[in-house]
Amino acid sequence: MKIHIPTPLRAYTSGQATVSVPGATVGQALEQLVGAYPDLRQNLYTGEGKLRSFVNIYLNDDDIRYLPAKEATATAESDELTIIPSIAGGCQRAVIPICN
Amino acid sequence: MLKLTYADYQALRAHSEDTYPHECCGVLLGNATPEGNHVRRTVRAGNTRSDRAHDRYNIAPEELIRIQREARGLGLDIVGFYHSHPDCPAQWSKTDFDEAHWVGCSYIITRVDKAKATVTNSFLLTGTGEEDKQFIDEPIEIEV
Fold it and tell me: In the prediction, which pLDDT does A100 show?
């Protein structure tokens, strides 16, 4: 199956935007990916082996966090995984002290 | 150096005025070159932070994926993002930094005062990951 790599992580996939890996489940496909490109692991997972909170993984159009089987979800050769880091932020407003 | 056309520059600033007093957000599509990110197209995105849109923004991952698919079809990549700071400096905030994860991408911020875009700055997220990332000031070259 194909895994789409976001621009910030292509430094760890030899510049490839898409990587093809075998895998019967989402988890197996991701393991194949980090097995082939070990430097990706610390960018995708915490030291405890959990997906980093800002890393979103989509199986086709579905966030795997909301799939019943999550990373154990079965995959087909025609499926596509997309790794997409979150994008958010916002301005810092000055805090006005309140005097008693 | 971030390169973008005057039309794209105007488009992202107009977006910041349209959403005032809320933050706007969008995606910069283009190509990474040895000289820096070269923007070929800007895409407006929705701000999902309706709970406090005056000082927060978030782009839904589903929308990002859709934009990325369209970019792929055009031979472009996501090379950055833009958002606005209503009545706040055009400088990255702690929240911006904490939530920045696209190393190598440009983050454009436009200050908006009373619905009028004023200062626009760009910051390049550098480093290798969360542990050593940092924003550096990035000059903007506008192609006329």
Answer: 46
Closest by Cβ to B101, choosing from A8, A82, A90: A8
* Å between B117 CA and nearest CA of chain A: 15
Supply B114's token pair: 């009373």
- For the domain made up of A2-85, the CATH class stated in words is alpha beta
B102 close contact with A: CB closer than 8 A: yes
Residues in chain A where the model's pLDDT stays below 50: 100
Higher per-residue pLDDT: A98 or B22:
B22
Which CATH number belongs to the domain containing residue B22 in this structure? 3.40.140.10
H or E element at residue A2: strand A2-4
Answer yes or no: is pLDDT of B119 > 60.
yes
Nearest to B136 by CA among B102, B107, B101, B98: B107
Regarding pTM above 0.90, the answer is yes
Domain assignments of chain A as residue spans, ordered by start = 2-85
Instruction: Give A58→chain B minimum CA distance, Å.
Output: 9
- Partner residue opposite B95 with nearest CB, options A17, A87, A92: A92
- Best interface-test mutation with B: which of A87, A92, A95, A96 has the largest number of B CBs within 10 A? A87
3-state SS, chain B, equals CEEEEHHHHHHHHHHHHHHCCCCCEEEEEEEEECCEEEEEEEEEECCCCCCCCCCCEEECHHHHHHHHHHHHHCCCEEEEEEEEEECCCCCCCHHHHHCCCCCCCEEEEEEEECCEEEEEEEEEEECCCCCCCEEEEECEEEEC
| Residue from B111, B89, B107, B87 nearest B99 by CA | B107
